[in-house]
Write a structure and sequence with these properties.
TIM Barrel, eight-stranded parallel β-barrel, two-stranded antiparallel sheet, 12 helices, 32% helix
């Protein structure tokens, strides 16, 4: 058996292989946040396609936490009931269903990417749609004046009541996710969305207990994690996705060394530190992506471009925290090497699963030959013999 197809045990959850479908927004709900047949086929086909874990897209914990009006949600019992058939089908195919719990913060209330991704400002688009949510809503931010694109009048700074509302929204969403049949809960703290906005000094200019020092900027993520872990069963895993770096370390470089509390952006050192905090709170795996916070980011590119971030966190963090790598992973040999060389414990594959829903089965064929062929559904085997 190749390393990529070795099982991964986290708490009492047995993951059949080291391949996960990375969360990928589909923007394909109506404006009610309920899943459609698109979601059932999209997620289900990747489970048929050999993934060990199938993660949903970023799933909003409250309506104002959606990136667009067409995002998936989990803020009511109706959402949980609508997701149950999807999780059941994923499990029937031998995969583990996971949900990414998310809040878009000041990146919410946008048009869909193929509609221009422009902000939807309340009142500006009246008459375009009878559905109030389709015309935008007031969004929340740790520090509106730090919003890197500027000019949106509908952004409001979060007060302490808003903070408590968000924490409780994540807690309730986790409980509903459990009722819907998900076995893994992932907290989205990456890509410039709300929790990342609090983490990074680029977007967090607060002067209260949620801003300033590293300890304060990580407070909301820790409180959200604690709330999710309180309602998530001890035998099931909790993941957190972070941006391993803002890719902004040199933006204000002046040649002086800085302490982490004085850093001008979220850095790899920040990620190692928060990994240790999260491990102590019962997080089982850190899903390491990067960037998404600021238009001046200068990321690396190419195959495995984010893997060094995951590898460093895996090597330097304390405790038993597992690490997932994502970004530019497109080939079976490449994915297998990441596990074999202990650069990561899990590979998360995104765009390659869009191009090929059966990437997992193809990888088994290429890496394991006839032994891998047996993993294809019997209905499909005439095509792979």
């Amino acid at each position: 058996m190749t390393d990529l197809f070795s099982p991964l045990s986290i708490r009492d959850t047995e993951i059949p292989n080291r391949i996960a479908v990375s969360p990928m927004c589909q923007y394909s709900c109506q404006t009610d946040g309920l899943p459609t047949e698109w979601h059932r086929v999209h997620l289900g086909s990747r489970a048929v396609g050999g993934a060990g874990i199938v993660l949903t897209e970023a799933t909003a914990v409250e309506p104002r936490g959606r990136i667009t009006p067409h995002d998936l949600g989990i803020w009511s019992d109706e959402h949980a009931r609508a997701l149950e058939p999807i999780t059941a089908f994923i499990r029937e195919q031998g995969a583990v269903p996971g949900i990414q719990l998310a809040h878009a913060g000041h990146k919410a209330s946008k048009r869909r990417p193929w509609e221009g991704n422009e902000p939807l400002v309340p009142g500006e688009n009246e008459g375009e749609d009878e559905d109030e949510d389709a015309n935008g809503w007031e969004v929340r931010s740790p520090s509106p004046e730090a919003y890197p694109f500027g000019g949106e009048p509908s952004i409001r700074e979060m007060d302490h009541g808003d903070v408590e509302t968000v924490i409780e929204a994540f807690r309730s969403a986790a409980r509903r996710s459990l009722e819907a049949g998900f076995e893994i809960a992932e907290i989205h703290a990456a890509h410039g969305y709300l929790l990342h906005e609090f983490l990074s000094p680029v977007t967090n200019r607060r002067e209260d207990e949620y801003g300033g020092s590293f300890e304060n900027r990580t407070r909301l993520l820790r409180e959200v994690t604690r709330a999710v872990r309180e309602v998530w069963p001890d035998e099931r895993p909790v993941f957190v996705r972070i941006s391993g770096t803002d890719w902004l370390e040199g933006r204000d470089a002046d040649g002086d060394s800085r302490s982490e509390d004085d850093a001008n952006s979220w850095t790899l050192e920040s990620s190692v530190r928060v990994a240790n905090q999260l491990s102590e709170l019962g997080v089982d795996l850190l899903d390491v992506s990067s960037g998404g916070l600021h238009p001046e980011q200068a990321p690396s590119a190419g195959p495995n471009f984010q893997v060094p971030l995951a590898e460093t966190i895996r090597a330097e963090s304390e405790g038993e925290l597992a690490v997932g790598a994502v970004g530019g992973i497109t080939e079976p040999e490449q994915a297998d090497a990441l596990i074999r060389n202990e650069r990561a414990d899990l590979v998360l594959v995104g765009r390659e699963f869009l191009r090929d829903p059966y990437f997992g089965l193809r990888a088994a064929d290429e890496l394991e030959g006839e032994s891998g062929e047996a993993t294809w559904p019997i209905q499909y085997r005439r095509a792979v013999r």
